[in-house]
Protein 1
Amino acid sequence: MDQSIEKIRGINQRALAINWTRMAGDHKIPRFEDFDPGARIHDPKKLAVWNVEQSDGEIVLRALFSGTLLNEPFSASWSGKTLEELTPPSLRSDIVSGAHECVRTGCAIYMILRTRDFKGHAIDLERLLLPFGRNGRVEQIVASLQLISLTGTVDRAAIVQEFEVQSKCILSVRIPRVASAKRRPLAATWMPKR
């Protein structure tokens, strides 16, 4: 597992999605051990790897790895904690339902959650979830999280609180597995239930 996590370093979200769709070209859920996207431009400090635990119809996602920029707003490592434990209550519906949709369908999920800083500027959290597993079952999810502000810098220490106060899901797209690396994946809009 540690070697697979090391392979993730250096990739952006678009490149991650393209790499994942090519791996899933035969309509199978790619194996995490085979994930070797190569060095590009994504900062591994913004990545998390979740282990999918399923029991009696319940889905629990437990953190295997989280980059240092993801740990910073929470003042702690995510390792061993569940997605539900880490997600603020006001965001839980969108965040958890997106992860469950990824597990249920075996499709990548791309979401944008938006909040506003104290000056009223929009801050977006772009979230890409990539499912990995065996025999048609999702066993791990690689999550890439990017904070975007077109008008200034993001205060990472306060960002969780800003999302707790006000946030909305402005985009949620399911990226299906495709049969050919030459074909571009078709995206289907999917919105979390509130």
Note: The first helix runs from residue 2 to 7.
Protein 2
Amino acid sequence: MRPDTKCPEVMCIGSAVMDITAEPISRDIPWQEKQRIRSIRMGVGGDAANQAVHLADLGIYAGLCGCIGEDENGRFLEERLQERGVMTQYLVRRRDLATGTALVLLDDAGERSAFSAGGAHYAVSRRDCETWENLPVRAISLASLFSMPELEKDGMKELLVNMGKRKIPVFADLASDKEGKGLKGIEAFLPFIDYFLPSLYDVKKLTGCGNAAEGAGTLQALGCRNVIIKCGAEGCYVRSGDTGLQVTALPVDPVDTTGAGDCMSALFIAGILEGWDVFESAAYAAKGASVSTLFMGACKEKITRERIREYLQAAAPGTP
């Protein structure tokens, strides 16, 4: 799978933060001044960082282009990423900004509420891409559109044009639209995106469409070649060419849904790099993302091909 060279196969661009997760935090019981819960832990977070970790777990050389602070949290985050095999030499350490941090509260059903503080993870710029832009990467992933304001304002389109000239496929996902830019905030980039993987929630909010099929059609009309809309427990809706298909997830009782979308994106990218078609890649990714919800944390556990195969065989004996 891995080439002999140490060049990244996939460059994940965007958010890298430290997650602080507390669980269980009930949505129904009033909070008290002091109360005991099951666990509080720290770990890797952020769309791009999560994707890079999952890709590395699959045996793919994954680079991470983003910004962290020159602080204790930044050192913690970088060490955890290196332990999992992520190529962190493309991270930029900022003295003027703190490492981004997110507080993730999980309820008893594994559903999350996330609170984030501004920090270095918003600061990735065109200049930060120059160290790897001309390397022979096989793909790039814009893991955090709406979360890279400097790059999106100045340099994103130039970067994507360069990728297009070199025939390097572009994958993209969305962070939450915190500044309320709406569809116009990313519309200029859509014609350069080969595989767009937003959530159904974000698609409805962006397009005003009532369902995944309508939303995928709208995004495709704006230039996206392939649209894969993540629908949580319902799997995903895939639109490629004139064909649309709902792909099912693996039925599970989730423990923690944090980072499941990032896991799905990574698995989908891996499938495309294997030479699978869009529908095969989406089906595999949706089921693998279901497996990821059985473990705590955005990417604490390794979601490997072998682990996915075990769960698929348990759900449908005889699965190869």
Note: The chain has a mean pLDDT of 92.
Protein 3
Amino acid sequence: MARRKTAFDRYFDNRMKDRAFAAAYSEARAVIDSTDALIRALDKARLLAGVSKAELARQIETRPEVLRRLFTAADSNPTLSTILKLAGALGYRLELVPERRAGAHEDAASA
């Protein structure tokens, strides 16, 4: 059974008709989704390595509650420094990979 639309749903649908709003929303949503995917991948790597959140926190010299929030909160927004520390402690590194869309790497190369 389909969920009944709320006033917010109708407001959001109306706002998405504005191209500028829709573009900004899509961009923000992509950043949020990418961050979430990265955090989930790091947590999966942690689990595969058999490392507890508390132990990982000790390895990167942070409080255990910081990692618990990072891996469980729906709205986590870690710093790049934290991401790099986590990846390194788990035996990973980050790489800059061009997007598949046409012209993406040319834009980055000219910057």
Note: The chain has one domain: 7-93.
Protein 4
Amino acid sequence: MAKKSKEWLKQADYDLETADLMFQNGRYFYAVFMSHLAIEKAIKGLYQERLNLLPPKTHNLIYLLQKMEVVPPEDMGRFLVKLNQASVVTRYPEDLARLQQDYTRPVVAKLLKKTREALKWTKSILKK
């Protein structure tokens, strides 16, 4: 694996650890934001490795996968769409109280679990 691809993955792992810390400290919507960032960086590592190009400066996970012609399993695809949508509201919040109401501990616990699965899935593709 190329050095730049490894760096993307290293940062993805670091960001997922940060998501866990945000979760543990009750900063739930920031855990969602960091989860998206972790998957974004993992996918950008895949992009770098597969296409040998610097990934575009976008936060859109689906766009990046489409550019590589990578189709996730159906369940994973649905999760990535959901995470992609969550990225916008957590990156540019309009209503803090609403975010805190929407992203409760149980909701974010499930999201973190799926994020770990998505990271594992992305790394498995890199090994192919």
Note: The radius of gyration is 14 Å.
